Protein 1
Amino acid sequence: MNKNPLLRLLTVALIGCFLSIGCKKKADPTPTPTPDTTKPVITLTGGGNPYTMIMGNYFYDPGYTATDNIDGTITAKVTTTASSVNHDLVGTYTVNYSVTDAAGNVGTASRTVIVINEASAIAGTYSVRDSNYTTHAITNYNARMTASTTQNQKLNINNFWNAGTIINVTAQYDGGTSFFMIGGESLGGSNILDNGNYVYFPQCHVTSAAAPVNIIIDYWVHNGSNDWHYLATYTKP
């Protein structure tokens, strides 16, 4: 038996070192980060969806925000197709919104934009009672008002004066009670109706813009030495 104290001490130290190294807990591996797969969210604000606007006015986006679970607020990164709205043409348009976060996730949204003619509120087929103040004759017929797709407050009255489907008189409606007759559209905007007949309108107004719609048109038709005074009542259920 080795009785050298120094040797015994060295042996014990070596054994303890080996035991310490062998029993030491290994460090945990670095965890793999969870990839960001969450799309950012675009929220449309103001104006509603669908958004209705009057023809002739520029489309100003009512607003939107974009947020991401990692990047936070990223509204400044949103791109839109707002320029696709033609404010001079009646129709339904779609504005698309898109935003991409730092991880490449894409968030989208869309808004429906409806461009209207104010005169469309009274467009439709009317029953007409046309009273001739000059001859005291009463004529009943149908006429149709069609809202313009390119000019706000404008509409055409087809079959005005019971003159046939080829006669169109342009009218202007402001959305309230004012109703102005402009002239015979079929002949370049003049007041010619047909076969040399001219028409002018002393008074025109909407007595009811809600159903049933009622429009009173007081007008004169002139042909040479003849003048006829009419009062037409247009009614739409």
Protein 2
Amino acid sequence: MGLWLSLAVAMVLKKPLRIIGKVRTIILGMGNPMRGDDSVGLHAVRALRDKLNKLDITVIEASGTGMDCLELLAGYDRAVIIDAIHTMEGKTGQIYRLELEAFDTNGYANTSHDLDFVIAIELGRRLGLALPRQIVIFAIEVGDAHSFSEKCTAAARQAIPNCVRIVCQELSEHSNA
């Protein structure tokens, strides 16, 4: 099968294209496009998509739950997640680099709709899904993730280029060379 046909099949099937000797990476921008600052992850991956042109990196926007992400992450070796975060003491626009172990979770959910991202990943691994071994989360501190708006606040918007730079640096430090 030719390269272009393989790419077309990979896109239609939403499966990562296997490139021999390369680490397959997915960059997943999370957020609700109608909830103001909550969409900051979506805006960041749009900016990243313009900077990245590599066959071994897939850039996707997602607005689902933790369970919805499992299917998107399956088959990749490494994942970079960009999402909004709201902490008690954070300053809007501040960027955090987190790993799954940084999240405190009780491992309990009333329904499958209550599953957060960390619990969903743990469930996926226990079910034998081929999930990334390395998952890094870049969380952008937001101020207003609840108002109905298609635009981020100025402070959150200003963090996007910095987040893009940090993610590009992360990718180059852990390149597939």
Protein 3
Amino acid sequence: MRCPFLRAGGPSAGFCAGVWLFGDVRERGCRLFPAMQDYRQLRVHANAHALAVAVRAATRRFPRNGYASLKGQMTTAAESISFNIVEGCGADSQKEFARFLLIGIRSANELENQLKLAKDYGLLTTLDWESLTESTVDVRRMLYGLRTKVRETFSSGTASTQKRTTQKRSTQTAKSNSVDRPAL
């Protein structure tokens, strides 16, 4: 099964969510993310970029007078999704990458509401609104999925560290309880 986060048309060996993919087969002994990864290989980035371009094109059709604030906020939110994916790919850790993906998710939520306002104000046709909203929801779902995968990679390391720490503490407690105490 092909990874849903790897951009279609990319090289046969791509990097995705902490796993090297070769064609349709996962390599044994998956590696964790290096410090940086190539955002251009993520399908979610390509979709977020296309969404930003589509939102900018749609807002160009807004009336010249009025609605400048909404127009600016819509383009900023749409571009923010793409920007946060790119910035997250350059993050120092998976935890930080997950944080940038969460910011992208929040920007997608904001954009969805702004699209609804633009439709209600009569600035977007129903067809444009449906298309842009569907794209926004798709990008948000992809971000949720990628964030879940990223969090799994750093959560599994944290869980094993916590388990070792708990075992160490219980061993220390057992040793301290076995120390001879003077009888009272």
